[in-house]
């Protein structure tokens, strides 16, 4: 992948889940958070509800393929975590790519609001 490195640390996954925003549909949930780096970091998780190891690895492969197809359209400097849902087992990379293009990219391109700055503005009023 051109502008992407793997997201490996549990701390980074948890930070993306708790402080980031998300976009979801029946087959996948995507969490994202700016990381102030010159690359995107990609993490993929699949739980036991997906099925056995063969099904979980297939889900990871199709998510990675869909991301690779639309990687150029992503803004640089984000941590992105995809969480597979049980409906993913009969889907293809093209279906996930449609989700990425239609919903996820629109959500990522919306500006992030700084929670600390908005709390300070409220306390000054």
Write a structural description.
This protein is α/β, with parallel strands linked by helices and 125 residues long. The protein has one domain (4-119): 2-Layer Sandwich (Ribosomal Protein S5, domain 2). It contains four helices and five strands; from the N terminus they run E-H-E-E-E-H-E-H-H. The chain has a five-stranded mixed sheet, with helices on both faces. Helix 2 (53-69) packs across helix 3 (93-109). The model has no long low-confidence stretch (mean pLDDT 89).
Summarize this structure as a short list of keywords or feature phrases.
125 residues; alpha/beta; Ribosomal Protein S5, domain 2; five-stranded mixed beta sheet; 22% strand; globular
Instruction: Return the average pLDDT rounded to an integer.
Output: 89
Major sheet: 5 strands, mixed
The helix/strand class is alpha/beta
Report strand order across the widest sheet.
Answer: 1-4-5-3-2
Reported CATH architecture: 2-Layer Sandwich
Helix content: 40-55%
Please render the helix and strand layout as text.
Layout: E1 4-6, H1 10-19, E2 21-24, E3 28-34, E4 40-45, H2 53-69, E5 78-84, H3 93-109, H4 115-124
Parallel strand pairs: 1-4, 4-5
Antiparallel strand pairs: 2-3, 3-5
């Amino acid at each position: 992948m051109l502008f992407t490195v793997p997201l490996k640390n549990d701390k980074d996954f948890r930070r993306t889940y708790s402080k980031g925003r998300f976009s979801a549909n029946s087959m996948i949930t995507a969490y994202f958070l700016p990381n102030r780096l010159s690359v995107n970091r990609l993490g993929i998780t699949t739980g036991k509800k997906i099925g056995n190891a063969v099904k979980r690895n297939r889900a990871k492969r199709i998510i990675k393929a869909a991301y690779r197809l639309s990687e150029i359209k992503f803004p640089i400097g984000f941590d992105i975590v995809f969480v597979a849902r049980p409906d993913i087992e009969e889907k293809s990379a093209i279906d996930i790519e449609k989700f990425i293009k239609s919903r996820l990219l629109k959500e990522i391109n919306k500006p992030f609001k700084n929670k600390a700055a908005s709390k300070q503005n409220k306390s000054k009023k």
